Amino acid sequence: MSLLDDAAVERLRSAADWPDLSGTKYRILRRIARGGMGTIYAALDGELGREVALKVLSETDPSGDLSARLRSEAMHLARLEHPNIVPVHDAGILPDGRAYYVMKLVVGKGLHAWRGEGRSLRELLGVYQKVCEAVAFAHAHGVIHRDLKPDNVMIGAFGEALVMDWGVAKRIAGRGLSDPDAQVTLTPGAAGGSVEAAPPFGGTAHGTVVGTPAYMAPEQARGDVERLDSRTDVYALGALLHHLLSGAPPFTGADAREVLSNVLSRPPSPLRQIDRTIPRALESIASKAMSRRPSDRYATASEVAADVARYLDGRPVTAHPENLLERTGRLLNNHKTLILLVFAYLLMRLVVLAAVGR
Amino acid sequence: MADDTSIGGAARGFPLTRRSAIAGVRSEDARERERSLESIIAAYWKPVYKYIRIKWGKPNEDAKDLTQEFFATALEKSFFASYDAAKGRFRTFLRVCLDAFIANQERAGRRLKRGGDLQLVSLEFESAEGELKTIDVPSPHSTETYFDTEWVRSLLGIGVEALRAECEASGKQVHFKLFERYDLERPATGAPTYDELAKEFGIPATQVTNHLAFARREFRRLLLDKLRELTINDEEFRLEARFLLGTGFE
């Protein structure tokens, strides 16, 4: 046989990874991306004649009981109708046992690339709030994402933020569409005890690490599946804010094992050590969201969004107790126009008084 | 590659069960131990040879002898049986064993036994040497990952030969030819289209799609079967599958 050069190795890897979709209504058009969790393809839905994104997860399900659960969970996820969520349309199992799911094909930019185009802090935080709201909506419907990261947030053609890739999402027991107004208020005790170990895709057993190490909460990095709850996503939201503000993930390493080890052994570097211009209040929000103990984090994604809104409105944030100097600085900043007007008025009065006195 | 090694068995001969050769080297049954070692050698001899050539900078004749001597010693002293899965992957363990073996040889200034006392392996080193000429030689600081890369190359090669053998045995030569034309060979002009392949093979384009889907599915299965054999438990298998297919964390 011909020698396997590096290009042939890559082609063979792709061939082995290529999904066999015969017997489904989908036909692969091209590969979009390949990552730790699986490979995303652009595919054609032959029945509806539209292009979709089809993700094939790397892991197989040796027990073979995934199919029914996958259907049920996909239906659940498909009902997450929110302007900032790209829902799952369909899901299935390939003949080789790998799970796939189908979602809307979004044309846009990844969050990191979008950020790199020189965005103002207000723009960054505006998008971030939308992401938090989308995640809070999912939590309220009993779903945690488990893989929030810049790659899974797309900015659409009209500047809309879209949270993608709900394929490793996990359902939290006791919440669902029958409880649409439920707020995500899982207490540490309740959350710890009420998480259903029934992930939709990938058959996550205890000890299995699912997600992306650099943005992963310590409990997730330990593979502590039973302890995952909405605060696991809150941690990832903190990591996402860290990335948005600094331009880099909170943890790095030579390989995934080193990143995981760093996540487990220490907190991330404070943002202001990376960039002194980052406001203290935002540093504190990211830091609180990324607390190592889930009970020290914000209880919900909505609370993260609310604290960011407070910062944008010039109000004190709950994550950061201000000292007198900071408070004065914030108030001066908030009332810049009024203070300038008063100052100008006083100056004018002084000039008039001086003129009259002469 | 089918004739690369006689000890690993010609490609059509290697076992495609889920038996772990790594566990098999500890078997009470001498035949099982030997079969297991043959499986390990079949997958590892090329990475070992190339690693000795590149990392240790040995001329090809010395590298050949060291490769044979390494596996002969492994059989003689059963040192693969001391592998402890809790300490890491077998692939890493083997590389560490190899480094220690070569270092010992160097320290002792031992004259290599040409071919070794135990004529266990008859390996086609020319093919490995040929591959060395076609692939990028790593910088000195990345020789460890080089061993891993060559292990991937070796396993993919075994997978291809297993697919060829299976297709031949089941009368699906066209399936393999299509796989070879589309996924293995790539002329400078780029990949042929399905329509071009359909014309070339005198079959409808839909059949090209189906045949390729079959071949790729089987390739994946055979490859993972082989990997299952070369790992000791599910966790190692999962990690190595990710690495092998390039979909993992590493």
How would you explain this protein's 3D organization?
The complex is a heterodimer of chains A (358) and B (250). With 358 residues, chain A is of the alpha+beta class. Chain A is built from 13 helices and ten strands. In chain A, helix 10 (280-289) packs antiparallel against helix 11. The longest helix of chain A is centred in the last third of the chain and has 22 residues, at 336-357. Chain B is built from ten helices and no strands. Chain B is globular and about 65 Å long. Chains A and B meet through helix 1 of A and helix 5, helix 6, helix 7, helix 9 and helix 10 of B.
Give a count of the beta strands of chain B, DSSP E runs of length 2 or more. 0
Sequence stretches where pLDDT stays below 50 over 5 or more residues of chain B: 1-17, 114-120
State mean pLDDT of chain A (0 to 100 scale). 82
Query: Distance between the terminal alpha carbons of chain B, to the nearest Å?
Result: 28 Å
Q: N-to-C terminal Cα separation of chain A, in Å? A: 105 Å
| Gyration radius over CA of chain A | 24 Å
Count of runs of 4 or more consecutive helical residues of chain A: 13
Name the largest protein-protein interface in this structure.
A-B, 35 and 43 residues
| Envelope shape of chain A | elongated
Q: Which whole number gives the mean pLDDT of chain B?
A: 81
Estimated helix fraction of chain B: 55-70%
Structural class of chain B: mainly alpha
Labels describing this entry:
heterodimer; A: 358 residues; alpha+beta; 5-stranded antiparallel β-sheet; 3-stranded antiparallel β-sheet; 41% helix; elongated; B: 250 residues; mainly alpha; 10 helices; 64% helix; globular; disordered N terminus
